Amino acid sequence: MAEHFKVAIIGSGPGGMSAAGRAAQNGVAHVLLEKTDHLSDTIYKYQKGKLVMATPDVLPLRSPMDFAMGIREDVLGIWDRQAAELKINVRFNAEATKIAKGDKGFTLTINGKETIAADAVVLAIGLQGNLRKLGVPGSDNHPRVQYQVDDPDEYSDETIVVVGAGDAAIENAVALAKQNKVIIVNRSGEFARAKQGNLDLISKSLDKGVLDCMYNSAPVKVENLSGDRMKLTLKTAEGEALVECDRIIARLGALAPRAFVESCGIQFPSKDPTALPELSPTYESNVKGLYVIGALAGYPLIKQAMNQGYEVIEFIQGNKVKPADEPILERKFAALLDRYTVDELLHAIQKTIPVFSGLTVLQLREVLLGSEVHTPQPGDAVFRRNEFTNTFFTIFEGEVGIEINPDDPNERVPLGPGEFFGEMGLISGRRRSATVAATRPSVLIETARREMIKLIKSVPQVRAAVDKAAIERQIRTYLAPNLSATYMAEVMSTAKLRPFKAGETVFNEGDPADGIYLIRNGSCTVSQRLAGREVVVNYVPAGNYVGEMALVRDRPRAATVKAAINTETVWVEAAHFRMLMDHMPELRHEVEKRIGAMIMQDEEISARPETGSLIEALVKEGAKEAADMLLIDESLCIRCDNCEKACAETHGGISRLDREAGPTFASIHVPTSCRHCAHPHCMPNCPADAIHKSKDGEVFIDEKCIGCGNCERDCPYGVIHMAYAADEKPGLLSWMLFGLGYGPGEDKAAALGEHHGAKLAVKCDLCKDIEGGAACVRACPTGAAIRVRPDEFFSLITKAGP
Amino acid sequence: MHESILVYKGFRWLKLSVAMVAVAVLAYAVHRPEVGPPNGGTTLGYVLGVWGLGLILWLAWFGIRKRRYGVGKQNLEDWLSAHIYLGLGLIVVATLHTGFQFGWNVHTLAYVLMIAVILSGVFGVAAYARYPDLITENRRGMTQREMLSQIAEIDAKARELSVDLGDNIHNEVMRAAEALAFGGSAWRLLRGREPDCPAARAMRRVGEMAMDLPKADAEKGHQLLELLARKVQSVERVRRDLSHKAMMDVWLYFHVPLTFALIAALTAHVVSVFFYW
Known about the structure:
By secondary structure, chain A is of the alpha+beta class. Chain A has 5 domains: 3-129 and 256-316, 3-Layer(bba) Sandwich (FAD/NAD(P)-binding domain), CATH 3.50.50; 145-250, FAD/NAD(P)-binding domain (3-Layer(bba) Sandwich), CATH 3.50.50.60; 328-474, Jelly Rolls (Sandwich); 486-607, Jelly Rolls, CATH 2.60.120; 624-800, no CATH class. Chain A is built from 24 helices and 41 strands.
């Protein structure tokens, strides 16, 4: 007779282990089956010393096991200890090879031989047990073809081929290249799948020649040579290529172990290899009594899996548990809970708000965790024109008005329940283009930028809804505020989004004019050929349009427009733009005014082409995405470094600005100081979510910084550096009389050592907490240091001239 | 690109200073002292004296204000502009206060010190107007560290090249690298030139010696000469840079200590006037 358990848990990763821990705590007869000889194999196989993240921060952990952000060894150590303390019944080297459902529950076959019986089964096998294999002749079970790297420093003086283009492949390849000759093989022509930090890492490494890359290459076969050498045949764009190497490391991602899961009777919704099984809200699959949690259920984060482990045991025991995030949601929606329970509210939100209707309940919960609820009264402003906030608002109840005319707050577009606003700030990363205020008592949901971007990227319906509304509002905001619905429908019938990559041409000088482009994010440079040379004549940030001149004057394009950074535009067809101008005298007036200014500006630039070079240089130095740039007029700068001293004095003794470093064009010097980009490069890869953008546009790092250095690496302008916190400064007299500590304005960074704790990232925060603004500018005795916003940029430079 | 301290806010402080001077001159012109010639002891003399003393203390406060980072509503530029124009106006106010009575005493000492402080300041304004452009032009986009490492690079290359060109040339190159120094005395720093520059000397001597190199080494000799000539240019550029910066700093070594001396002399002046006159 087979051993019988109430619940059998397969896989001892965070989810399975947490489930087993909860079962042990509740006195449920359980067994935890693990096919290796240690717990949590996926994390066990992380690179040594790797930092294990505990995202999402807002989600509380609910598990008998502890987990917080830490290095791999500490995390595993705690789990091993707690598993023993809880007396979890774990069986190592026990792979469940078959799960069969009978009348009285499940029969599990272990390692193909022994069987055990269980009333319920929790499948927590994750995806990493099923790594994508190279799958070419000669690679199967080859001892030197491997799919992970524990410690890159173990290998030296080898020729290693790394196959893959994702984060793991890049991290491994770069780490291995320290002691080995590394060739990274990429199936496609670029590294697109990796996160930004790793993209920069690989492109820098390739530029420096630290490692080689073969693009558009796919492995064909592996053959053994003498000794430990082997030969890898690759199919490339130019035909076959042969690479001799000592080792092949393939990092190709992981897939659901579909054959096994299907053999248990679980159905997948589609044939797509990345598809995951469909589950009930209690994580139960279509096979009654068979539950799926963790990555295989679509929840790849450790904390989520651990919470699910706890919950699934409670569900199996017949207990109702509210999800771990329930108290947070209750707190957020406190204002509405006299009318709704949380579940009813989620349902009502999905019903009322179309952008959220395509989400699963779990996705919606996640979005709402990253959201706030506001209940403004009539007249309360939600946000104001020119603020730098970038959150997204949906209207659950009530009504708000978008004040489209800055001079007349009564001219507004009303929005009602189910509609959304704020997407322009979200998309452009620039200032809010209008004030929005409640016109009736309202309930608004404000969703954080991070959550919204994730949603737009992952849910096509959300993207489509946001894009459609955005196109219409952009046209309203920048071209035709009072356009009637009929005309708008006509314009919208041809208007579309046109994205351009950095450096890509929007249109060329001499092209026929097909329409105009509203720049909704990014920025463009405008250039003309003058005396046989391409000269930049203007710089156009998001929130403006280009291409109207040729339409109005009815001639070919007079200039070339290129995207300075990745840019998205709304394209409006020529005929429709002309129609708009015919119907709206104020638009015609505005366009004529712009054209007049442009004609004069062009003449000015052709008289002084060097001004164009200056614009071009500054655009390259970050003006293309800057919200604020520190410039120094060297003809006034007396090199006293009072700006640096002021920065250090107001920021804990460490200057965030290096006056002398950085390029100089004509007499305009661009010191090393934060540009406060529209879409900061430093922000997306911050694991601690410590980098933020304030209402006024300052990009700053808060105390959550863990010192990982991602932002320092990601910043293209080199303005973030890692520094030890400085000591408290002694009084002026103790310094003068006793030589204690540091004097006024002395930079202490150099003298600090490791006893000051970990190095943390420091950067300019534009003195956002200091009354009166940037200390560097205010401390400049000659007025050489100025801060410039993109809209002031051009006029300032032409006025000055180089 | 934008306003310098002199034209700041449409010469706001110049206008104020001129007004101040005009009031002082007018008052001096109409004022008839009760007894004797105009002097510091008359009613107007006291008014001008207190006025001047207040100005001096306020002007000296600039040294502290400059180091109070992140406080106050005004930009430092505003303060400096005021400091310059009101400081110049002080000459008239203080001179009228003296009633043109000078002598070999502590009172005139205070006056002379004040004039010295103001003149050193005038030099400073001139230096701030002249040198920033010269520095930019001279540096050609390089930082000082970059210029120095460029010289070090040239030295390394020259050393490598000279190994094959015989002991004399090699020794000359080595000696020149070791002997090169920047700065030293204040005078050398300010002068910005070095008549007996080791780099220039080495260039001349290697030039002479290279003429006698065997034909096979001639090209190497030319290359070495080219390096040494480039080094001379770089060295001169660094010297000029140091001199420019020194010119912008040197006047402060007079301006600040003299200010302290002035305040001491003023204290003596005021105390002696009130207690011993």
